[in-house]
Amino acid sequence: MCGIWALFGSDECLAVQCTNAMKIAHRGPDAFRFENVNGFTNCCFGFHRLAIVDQLYGMQPLRVKKFPYLWLCYNGEIYNHIRLKNQFEFEHQTKVDGEILLHLYDRFGIKKMASMLNGVFAFILLDTANRKVFIGRDTYGVRPLFRLLTDDGFLAVCSEAKGLLDLKTSMSTPAKITPFPPGHFEVFDLKLTGKVESVQMDRFHCCTEEPKHAAYNNLEGLGTGFELETVKSNIRILFEDVVNGQNHSCTWVRLHVPSFLFPQKISDWSFFTVFVTLRVPFLDHRFTAYYLSLLEEMRVPKDGVEKHLLREAFKGLKLIPDEILWRRKEAFSDGMTSMKKSWYTSLQEYIESEVNDSQLEKANTQFSFNPPTTKEGLIRQIFEKHYPDRCEWTPHYWMPRWIKATDPSARTLSIYKPDKDQLSH
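^ Asparagine synthetase [glutamine-hydrolyzing], sequence as received from the core. Prediction below:
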């Protein structure tokens, strides 16, 4: 996890604005760089680094001798960077996976560059020779990216919204901060004043379409048609390729409290640097495109077991023990606690003692957009405190759609029946 931050056409002193970049310092504890853009005195990049690859050249903004006019700040991992480097015989200056963006952009332009990337990423790319700024985000938005754009052309981009909240602008009203849409890139003209103008917003990949980078990764044995054994074989081939490729280097509170505390606990063990980096094989572009192309009746839960087809594909291969392959789905926040008393139950009991009925009754008037319907949902007050009038960032509450449910915890679902031995844990 790294933190990226950039301004184009700042109305205030950059040194003053830089204090906002420090609000995301937790994303990269190893180093920080703040760099002005040559020739544009009101444009700059900020980068917080978590050092994982190339200790010497891994700092950002990334620049190489071959493309002195290109500046790159990105957060994420490009899983197929070596394959693309070899395919097109690019000569890399560093060992950084993100350098592939510079070569692809120079050779093919922004849209093909983005569509060729297999990975999780958010990037800001500056081309001073052509006075263009590009920003983009991976297909599923695994890596976060927020942008602020004023009517007079001041652009600010950051990994987290908090790095944009207190920026100084010439606008009389607060500038709108929006999450950048996944699977898209945006193109800006960079004016001599440092201000920008958005000239193109385009989608480079849709999750139901096979990605363009698949053409450079020929997998033997893939079959055609919807015969069950063919489908299961294809699932195994695609998924195993994904795992190998990624191995190369509003349940909101329930999930993120333990996710936050666990890494904190082990942060003293320096050899766990790459723990705080997610692997998301089920979100692979090629794998999801294939899976979504299957007949709906093949994909739905079967015999009360969700993800039945995925489990069935690996049945009998002894790659995964049966007790893991067929165990019931359980959220991390549930699985880390006792079967007798789950974390979400403890959380609800605490909230019940802190929130009274009248507070919940006022929710409809307090929150004009998507008001909470439970006392637990009133924890949104904390969000509103830090990000007032930005409720559109949380457009809906997650809930299972394939079964009647009133709570997102798997333990509350009718199909969930814990084994007797689990109850003693």
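The first strand starts at residue 3 and ends at 8.
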